[in-house]
Write a structure and sequence with these properties.
The protein is mainly β. Helix content is 3%, strand content 48%. The strands form six sheets. Strands 1, 22, 24, 27 and 29 form a five-stranded mixed sheet that branches. Residues 1-23 form the signal peptide.
Length: 404
């Protein structure tokens, strides 16, 4: 028998934002931009190539949601995209092109926990997502503009060849060969370089969660190009999806952890498919339902369903079908060791629910409560700690409105 739900139950995810015009394309930025807001107020005023000043929106984001702002570029060039939280809020931003590919991502490059990405962008429409680093509620500003316009954030100071400040000295750099990892303790080696014989898109990673590395990329002249702290757990990754010119590049490595631990640094050719697969594995985007990525189909969710799964840091995905509006509860309960995270999307790839700890009696188990309409929904479960592998009991429950 299908259980009714009372009006006391509420959804677990919502966001309040100042609302300029909405996007109309449900597939914009791979679905992320479906409910995005034009940063200039409307589409015509959101071209940062021709705007007389920067464009900006303020957003209040609650309960692990994100604000998505839209802007366009009518001339290829260098642009600055920023996010800054009020009251010391720690922002994270991602910039996606119209196809949904991340072209820039940043946590703290704006200084004081603000985010700042300075990237070469080609003609097209872009989505910038702002969220809180720890998932707590945040009020912040999102700004997009040209390099000659007023910045929102302080950014980093001018380079002084001081690695401890995230800067680079090519004279002490160890040469990287594309595709070949190098591992050294930070105290022994913390500056690397690589050379491109021809224009290329590249990915740079720094791996050892116990060391908690930080990556910063510069060109040979010392110009800051990109920075990342925590991309995959406490590991760092920079994806330069747009072609870098031929030449030499400098990679500065910093860390928050033990300086004696080895950190594996790799520079390799950018692989758009790998980037997309990583998004699915982290639960940061929903996979397609065409069989190209493993999603366990549970069929129609009628009343209550239980599923046990052994999962680590990579998400395990489920889909289920709803044929009448109502409420869905999804629980992830650790059976022994584990700290599960739940993420839920609709079939258009829109995030509709996220939970880490349900906070019931201090529990680290996860609980989602999501109001649903007819359609297909996807749920991902993973461990918060990438190093943990454990049994998680999943419970899916459906409720329908009580009749008056």
């Amino acid at each position: 028998m299908i259980r009714p739900f009372s009006t006391a139950l509420a959804t677990s995810l919502f966001a309040l934002v100042a609302l300029p015009a909405l996007a109309q394309d449900a597939n914009l930025c791979g679905g992320v931009g479906a409910n995005g807001q034009w940063l200039g107020g409307d589409e015509a005023s959101s071209d940062i190539s021709t705007s007389p000043a920067h464009i900006e929106q303020m957003a209040l984001v609650l309960m692990r949601n994100e604000f998505v702002g839209l802007f366009s570029v009518s001339q290829d060039g260098d642009y600055r995209i920023e996010a800054q939280g009020r009251g010391g809020g720690d922002t994270v931003l991602d910039v996606r092109d119209a196809s949904g590919e991340i072209v820039a991502s940043d946590d703290d490059s704006g200084g004081d926990a603000s985010s700042r990405a300075e990237s070469f962008l080609t003609v097209g429409t872009y989505c910038v997502s702002m969220r809180s680093f720890d998932g707590s509620p945040i009020t912040g500003f999102v700004r997009a503009g040209r390099m000659d316009q007023e910045p929102l954030t302080a950014g980093f100071a001018a380079p002084s060849n001081d690695v401890a400040n995230g800067e680079c000295d090519l004279s002490v750099a160890q040469q990287l060969t594309l595709g070949e990892p190098l591992a050294n303790p930070w105290a022994t080696q913390n500056v690397y370089s690589f050379e491109l014989d021809a224009p290329a898109a590249v990915t740079i990673t720094a791996e050892n969660e116990a060391a908690d590395p930080i990556l910063t990329l510069f060109d040979a002249s010392g110009n800051w190009l990109a920075e990342n702290d925590d991309f995959d757990g406490l590991n760092s990754r920079i994806d330069m999806a747009n072609m870098l010119p031929a030449g030499e590049y400098c990679v500065a490595l910093n860390l928050y952890g033990d300086e004696s631990l080895p950190i594996t640094v790799t520079a390799k050719a950018y692989d758009a498919m790998e980037v997309q697969m990583n998004l699915y594995a982290r639960g940061d985007a929903s996979p397609p339902l065409d069989g190209s990525y493993p999603v366990a189909a549970l069929g129609e969710l009628q009343t209550r369903l239980r599923q046990d799964v052994t999962v680590g840091g990579d998400a395990i995905w489920y889909s289920f079908d709803i044929y009448a509006g109502g409420l869905v509860l999804v629980e992830a309960i650790a059976q022994g060791q584990g700290d599960p995270v739940l993420v839920m999307y609709d079939d258009l790839g829109r995030l509709v629910g996220y939970n880490d700890d349900s906070d019931e009696y201090g529990s680290v188990d996860s609980l989602l409560t999501v109001r649903v309409q007819p359609g297909t929904y996807l749920v991902a479960v993973r461990q918060l700690d990438n190093q943990t592998q454990g049994l998680i009991r999943m419970v899916f429950e459906r409720y329908v409105p009580a009749r008056p």
